[in-house]
């Protein structure tokens, strides 16, 4: 008899209220003397740098291009290019080159980008999204234009405002503050894909955000605002799509005629295509059980995490700093890293040392895995370096959602082991090739 039913999800405490009790603030630009832009992406490919030491830049000057998918990056302040220096990057877990720009505090702006009308050809809309360097603001940072390039047979644009990670509240607040922009951006995305429908999904019990989105969408019969259950990881594309469409897919949602974008990403699509603005600042949730004045704060892209933390009253306790939500991000080594546009949170949690005990073989990790994997079996294969079995168990389909660690009664860091298993399997597969 199974002790746990196969669910693929779990209700977990959201702790969202912590950062919603205080108003959003904006950091004083005078406190941001320098901004820093990492010059490598997750795949370690270096960026093409378009400026050199001593160059003057403005807010919105194109400073570098990521070669994979040609994604431009823009300065978030006006000032002078100082240098390229080594700095820790939590996305890669390594030290890498960063472009440093010294702020002149004048906030001189570049000319806006060329705007695009909603009735423009879809190729023009996709090109404008590419030119604005828009990447997914929900955390993954995947270039938005790539999802829309030469797509066919798309029926629905699914705007994901679920934000299922505990503590995080930026998408929720943007939905309240900028619902019209989210709807406006979603219409451009709908046009870019030739889709007939838009669904905006958010979790239940967010009535105010839901009402704002419904008001903003009230003029359009092809937009539906859909509330979805509050369980984790409802915001993961595959879970959300299965809940809404009752369909599964292999690699991309476009296989079943759907493209998914985060709601704040839709908002910045609107900013770029209607107002010609690129992303130079963003809303960031700073929360956790050691932050006395948790709230959301607007900061320039490229600001250091340590500069943001100086704005907060933090309990005098040993804590771990997570450059994202507690379920999916790994603790940062320190707060010396720079925020890029897809990083929307700093979560500070009191350090708790768990003493793992032997696996009980209870099956909870397998029962809750939203990818349908058997983490307990993968751990055994990992321990034995049984690469054939790791392949058979489809180890690479793990999405690092963190749920297996969360549910493990033995306090085993199952997700960390899954990451290690993927790494050794990747190395093994490339050596085989
Ligand atoms: S790893 Fe943890 S959750 Fe999975 S079977 Fe063992 S004890 Fe249970
Ligand atoms: S981290 Fe990976 S193995 Fe663990 S529950 Fe999530 S998808 Fe499954």
Structure description:
The structure is a single chain. This protein has 433 residues and is of the alpha/beta class. It has three domains: 17-112 and 278-350, no CATH class; 122-275, Rossmann fold; 364-432, no CATH class. It contains 14 helices and 16 strands. A five-stranded mixed sheet has the order 1-14-13-16-15. A four-stranded antiparallel sheet has the order 2-8-7-4, with no helix packed on it. Helix 2 (122-131) packs across helix 5, helix 4 (170-177) packs across helix 6 (207-216) and helix 11 packs across helix 14 (414-432). The two termini are 42 Å apart. The site of one iron/sulfur cluster has 15 residues, from helix 10 and helix 11.
How many DSSP E strands? 16
**Fraction in beta strands:** 15-25%
Low-confidence stretches: 1-5
Major beta sheet, specifics? 5 strands, mixed
User: What is the spatial order of strands in the main beta sheet?
Assistant: 1-14-13-16-15
The helix tally amounts to 14
Q: Give a list of the ligands.
A: iron/sulfur cluster
Mean pLDDT: 95
């Amino acid at each position: 008899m199974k002790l746990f039913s196969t669910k693929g999800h779990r209700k977990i405490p959201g702790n969202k209220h912590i950062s919603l009790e205080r108003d959003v603030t904006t950091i004083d630009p005078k406190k941001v003397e320098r901004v820093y832009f990492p010059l490598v992406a997750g795949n370690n490919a270096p960026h093409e740098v378009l400026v050199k030491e001593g160059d003057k830049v403005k807010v919105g000057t194109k400073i570098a291009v990521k070669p994979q998918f040609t994604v431009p990056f823009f300065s978030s302040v006006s000032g002078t290019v100082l240098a390229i220096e080594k700095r820790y990057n939590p996305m890669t877990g390594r030290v890498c080159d960063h472009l440093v720009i010294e702020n002149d505090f004048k906030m001189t702006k570049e000319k806006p980008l060329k705007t695009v009308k909603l009735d423009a050809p879809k190729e023009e809309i996709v090109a404008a999204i590419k030119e604005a360097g828009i990447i997914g603001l929900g955390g993954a940072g995947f270039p938005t234009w790539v999802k829309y390039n030469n797509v066919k047979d798309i029926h629905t644009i699914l705007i994901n405002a679920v934000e299922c990670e505990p503590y995080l509240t930026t998408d929720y607040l943007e939905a309240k503050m900028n619902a019209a922009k989210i709807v406006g951006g979603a219409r451009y995305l709908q046009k870019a894909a030739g889709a007939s429908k838009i669904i905006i999904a958010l979790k239940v019990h967010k009535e105010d955000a839901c009402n704002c989105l419904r008001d903003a969408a009230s003029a359009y019969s092809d937009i539906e605002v859909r509330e979805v259950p509050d369980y984790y990881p409802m915001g993961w594309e595959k879970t959300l799509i299965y809940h809404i469409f009752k369909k599964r897919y292999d690699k991309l949602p476009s296989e079943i005629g759907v493209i998914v974008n985060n709601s704040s990403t839709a908002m910045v699509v609107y900013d770029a295509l209607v107002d010609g603005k690129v992303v130079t600042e963003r809303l960031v949730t700073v929360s956790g059980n050691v932050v006395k004045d948790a709230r959301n704060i607007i900061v320039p892209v490229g600001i250091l995490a340590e500069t943001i933390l100086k704005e907060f009253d933090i309990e005098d306790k040993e804590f771990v700093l997570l450059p994202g939500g507690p379920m999916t991000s790994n603790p940062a080594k320190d707060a010396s890293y720079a925020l890029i546009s897809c990083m929307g949170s700093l979560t500070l949690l009191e350090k708790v040392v768990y003493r793992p005990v032997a696996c009980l073989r209870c099956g909870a990790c397998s029962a809750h895995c939203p990818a349908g994997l058997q983490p307990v079996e993968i751990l055994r294969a990992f321990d034995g370096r049984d690469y054939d079995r790791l392949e058979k168990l489809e180890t690479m389909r793990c999405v690092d959602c963190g749920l297996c660690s969360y549910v493990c009664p033995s306090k085993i860091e199952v997700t960390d082991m899954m990451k290690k298993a993927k790494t050794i399997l990747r190395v093994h597969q490339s050596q085989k090739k």
